């Protein structure tokens, strides 16, 4: 059966508030990327970094692009989260990671929910 890309369900999305923070960071740091932390530093917070600052390899999964930023997660963590939709948001408060928004007194957060049965059907397997 041929996969229909027009039915593609996004694995990760971003809120309007988080987009505004990305725009501000991009104006200072240039192109950006995200990596969903696997539990070190600030728990499992998404980290926003200058594009290429974190070396991506075969153990990372590209979940998609949010607001022109590639979004990655380790393949081990993906195995736990592959049934969930992720929404990247922003909140006040200093996190403890190396993410670019931390000096702004903000931190990106990941909100998740399980995919519906219909969404599960229209997901493309990444690994």
Fold and architecture overview:
The chain is α/β, with parallel strands linked by helices and 127 residues long. It has one domain (5-122): Hypothetical Protein Aq_1857, Chain: A (Sandwich), CATH 2.60.300. The protein has 3 helices and 7 strands; from the N terminus they run βαββββαββα. The strands form 2 sheets. The protein has a 4-stranded mixed beta sheet with strand order 3-2-5-4. A 3-stranded mixed beta sheet has the order 1-6-7. The chain starts with 11 loop residues before the first strand and ends in a 5-residue tail after the last helix. Residues 1-6 have low confidence and may be disordered. InterPro entries: DUF779 (IPR008497). It comes from Sungkyunkwania multivorans. It holds the Pfam family DUF779. This is DUF779 domain-containing protein.
User: What is the β-strand count?
Assistant: 7
Shape: globular
Rounded to the nearest angstrom, the radius of gyration is: 15 Å
Helix fraction, binned, reads 10-25%
Q: Give helix and strand order, one letter per element, not per position.
A: EHEEEEHEEH
The CATH class label is Mainly Beta
Biggest β-sheet description? 4 strands, mixed
Share of residues in strands = 25-35%
List keywords for this structure.
127 residues; alpha/beta; Hypothetical Protein Aq_1857, Chain: A; 3-stranded mixed beta sheet; 7 strands
Briefly say what this structure is.
This is DUF779 domain-containing protein. With 127 residues, the chain is α/β, with parallel strands linked by helices. The chain is built from 3 helices and 7 strands, in the order E-H-E-E-E-E-H-E-E-H.
């Amino acid at each position: 059966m041929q996969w229909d890309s027009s039915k593609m369900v996004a694995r990760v999305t971003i809120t309007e508030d988080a987009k505004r923070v990305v725009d501000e960071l991009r104006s200072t740091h240039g192109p950006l990327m995200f990596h969903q932390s696997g539990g070190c530093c600030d728990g499992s917070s998404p980290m926003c970094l200058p594009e290429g600052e974190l070396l991506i390899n075969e153990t990372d999964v590209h979940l998609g692009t949010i607001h022109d930023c590639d979004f990655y997660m380790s393949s081990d963590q993906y195995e736990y989260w592959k049934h969930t939709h992720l929404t990247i948001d922003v909140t006040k408060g200093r996190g403890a990671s190396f993410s670019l928004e931390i000096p702004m007194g903000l931190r990106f957060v990941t909100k998740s929910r399980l995919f519906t049965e219909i969404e599960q059907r229209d997901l493309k397997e990444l690994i």
